[in-house]
Amino acid sequence: MTRRLVLMSLSLIAFGIALLGLWPSAGNEANALLLMMLTLQAAGQAAWHWRNTSLSQLFLGASLILNILLICTFLLPESWVGVDHWGDLLINLPGDWHIANIRPPILILFACFGLTTCALLRMRLGFGSAIQLTQVTLLLLFAMMSDASLSVASMVLAGPERITLTSFVSLLLIAQWIDLQPAFMQMWRRNLIPLIISSSITLVCLLAWQQQSQDENNRINQSTYVLGDKIATELSREINDQLNAMRRFAGFWSLMGQTPSRGEWQRLARSYYKDFDYFQNIAFIDPDSVITRVFPDKGRNHDVLGVRLLDAQPDTPLRNPLELGIEGHTGIIDLIQGGKGMVSYLPVRDPRDGTILGAIAMVVDLAPLLDRAMDTARNEAFAVTLSERGNIYIHVGPESRLAPWGHRIPIELPATDLTLGLQPTQQFLAATRGRLPEVTLLTGMLLAYLLFLVIYMYRRVSQEHGIVKNANDALREEMVRRERLQNEIQWLARHDELTQLPNRRYFLEQVQSFSGKMPLTVMILDIDFFKTINDKLGHLEGDRYLQKIAAVSRAPVESAGGILARFGGEEFVVCIPECPRAVGRTLAEELRRAVQAAGLPQPATDSVVTVSVGMACVARAPLRLDALLQAADEALYRAKSSGRNQVQVAA
User: Which reaction does it catalyse (predicted)?
Assistant: First the structure.
């Protein structure tokens, strides 16, 4: 009786923690669904410990249904049931019932699933309760140790939520282990071997899930950065194009050698205004900084005629063209007409004596320009901002349910520090993120559970019938097969399947083992214009290029006693112990020439494929691997910026 009271108390304490930590409040109404699932689970387990089977099955069954629905939001392909479909089911509910808010991290969800099914199966060893509780234990440990960034488009496991959820699962788990302990101690010999094997497979699956989740996050991060860079490039190109057009416009008036009449101004300015429909206006300013001509000259633009700019905006760079005869450019400013924009001032000179006749002002409204550059992101999947020195001036796109991270990309414009910010929405992350990590984890756990049942039942039958020899042979064969499978999984976890080279993880392990062999040289090789190869020749041909480059690069590196690994995408990384800087540079040049000599056609340059190499060398301990890789990466960036197909060495 005392034992049952202790177990019930643990379940009730878990129930109280869930209520206190997840009680719906303003802005957190979606916690109600999770709270319902957890309270039903705690009540069902408490009823089980009290040995009220019917009530326990009722509560646990209802909790299991909610649990499976939440798991389906992670596993079902987007083409089957998309994020928009889930949103349609939740849109009429009061509060912020978005898909990213209603579901906990997948590890917690799987842990609750394991506890619920274990209780429904009456915690019997023959039904695999030992492996279920072991899997829940491993899931809980990984949930406590995993980076919060792996929780994409779900509740972030951090802060009070982390304490609430992990405490809830821990208490229910402890109660079930205590309840199972007498039966397990009686039959531990029968359970130990299948438990070790299945637990090992579960651990491998968790590691695979962690790596795949990181890879998937990196993929999404890279793809969103590429989009942001594209928008920034488009903005820069558009503004530079219209600036060059305005330079021609100002040059025309300089050739005329006179200030424009109203009719001439309207006629010529109209054609430029049509080409760049995001102009606020085009204005002519006399030497006294008075606006004498403006196009279009209606509405707010008409109100600026006759305004003396040096009085209205004393800090304007208009003095550059009017006094020095050079261009002047503002950053983002408050326009006289209202709103935010940028202004460029271009001088107009008399060609005969160089007298400054005035200046052409080009006023750009950034909002329509940003809309034009965002044609590729008009599905409300991203929030885009324009800022200067940390001050956000323009925001386009949704303002809520945004991811906790984003990209800040500088825009190359004259005399300004304009920065473009790109932040994806949680809906975009939920729809874009691949389902492979979660499918891998669930499949691996189910296989481990089924394997446990198979081995457990086989051993039980063998012991009952006394066929010790046959049972031992079968078990030995199974262990060999599992060992081979585990070795294969371990090899795959440490190598890149495409190029047969070590992967990032194995490379980092090897570099640490080289920490006592100074000097240590690290190189990062990046294939120039590799995206063009994939776009024009296809990804299969791109894969063949990667294999070829890996093959020609491997021999020189290994002959020097180093290691060559694929670092991701089109990047390879080299580490050579006991390699001075000069020797490393020679080897880097040898690798660069070897790739060039391979003669792989490069459609981007109508030549052959080349690589850019960034190299860094540390002469003595201690080894700061992050700093060394960062230095090599910065050297690679210089090699790219300096024209590619070259070696740059970090200082």
Answer: 2 GTP = 3',3'-c-di-GMP + 2 diphosphate
